[in-house]
Amino acid sequence: MIMLGRDGLGSAGHRIVHGGMDHVEPALITYDLLDSLDGLTPHDPLHMQHNLAPVRAILKARPDLPQVACFDTAFHHDMPVEAQTVPVPRALRDAGVRRYGFHGLSYEYIANRLARDAPDLARGRAIIAHLGAGASLCALSGGASIATTIGFSTLDGLLMATPCGDIDPGALLYLARQGRSVAEIEDLLYHQSELLGVSGISGDLRLLLASDDARTVEVISLFSYRIAVEAGGMASALGGIDGFVFTAGIGERSAVIRAAVCERLAWLGIALDDAANAANARQISATDSKIKVLVYRTDEEAMIAQHTRAVLSRHLAVNR
Ligand SMILES: Nc1ncnc2c1ncn2[C@@H]1O[C@H](COP(=O)(O)OP(=O)(O)O)[C@@H](O)[C@H]1O
Ligand SMILES: CC(=O)OP(=O)(O)O
Ligand SMILES: [Mg+2]
């Protein structure tokens, strides 16, 4: 995102999906930081190359322009240790094999909106469902992330457009023993799985919902099933929930998916107001629902702008 200053371009702020262990807050981009972020590309080949390419292009064209990196992983940095732990030997954990969590800028924006619009809920326990091309859930307690469904890379958790989501690592070993190379398996997991792979039609949910192909029924059912199953886990991490928020492309716009998810979560005390849901209203739960269900439009760009301004004003103050 390019921000205008008084005399033209002022600065550029970037969403960088992975900050790894070392980058846990928004930071001014230096050559050292860029080198360090390059080193994280194998953690998430789907996003990191695309995230870093514009940084490099701007650096080349306008080396004087301040650029700020805003990390998706940062919001989850203080999750409890059990939510961060991957059960591998400690040396590997210390080397960075752990659960990081993603879509943090989106969750941060929603947490800020809740603090403003629904302070009781913001102080309580909520599940936020970021359902876009990539999809995840975040367990928000008192405005902080205490658990989330995507872990080390962006492959974990829910069904997404093309990345595979939750998969038994044994299946990967099986594929490797069958003679598939790392590059082939990576391509399979990041680009050919989930909505696209299961439907055999498209990774774009809007197209699947509009199609009368029988395979779409299976994939839409699987999509809401996975959300509901993972929401059960998030509700456990929170010890119960007071609210559920839908956001991002699918969460904001698909009444069909929201209804399918809420129906599966009726056991938690969720009851939907069908008319409000069909109208994409802010509150879509029925008045007698035990859990408040809300729809918010996320705004990752607003968070990037806010962080970029804050980093640059700190930087200016230090160098004054
Ligand atoms: N009206 C809609 N109904 C269902 N899905 C929708 C609708 N509008 C957008 N989507 C879906 O939202 C997803 C993209 O979400 P978005 O948050 O924009 O993605 P990104 O992760 O690229 O920012 C796509 O799967 C798209 O099909
Ligand atoms: C982390 C992730 O999956 O991001 P996106 O939804 O932008 O693909
Ligand atoms: Mg998005």
From TrEMBL:
Positions with a binding annotation for substrate: 15
The keyword NADP is assigned to this record: no
Cofactors, names only: Mg(2+); Mn(2+)
Major subcellular site: cytoplasm
InterPro entries found in the cross-reference section: Ac/propionate_kinase, Aliphatic_acid_kin_short-chain, Aliphatic_acid_kinase_CS, ATPase_NBD
Residue positions binding Mg(2+): 300
Pathway the protein contributes to: Metabolic intermediate biosynthesis; acetyl-CoA biosynthesis; acetyl-CoA from acetate: step 1/2
Cofactor annotation comment: Mg(2+). Can also accept Mn(2+).
Residue numbers binding ATP: 130-134, 204-206
Protein name: Acetate kinase
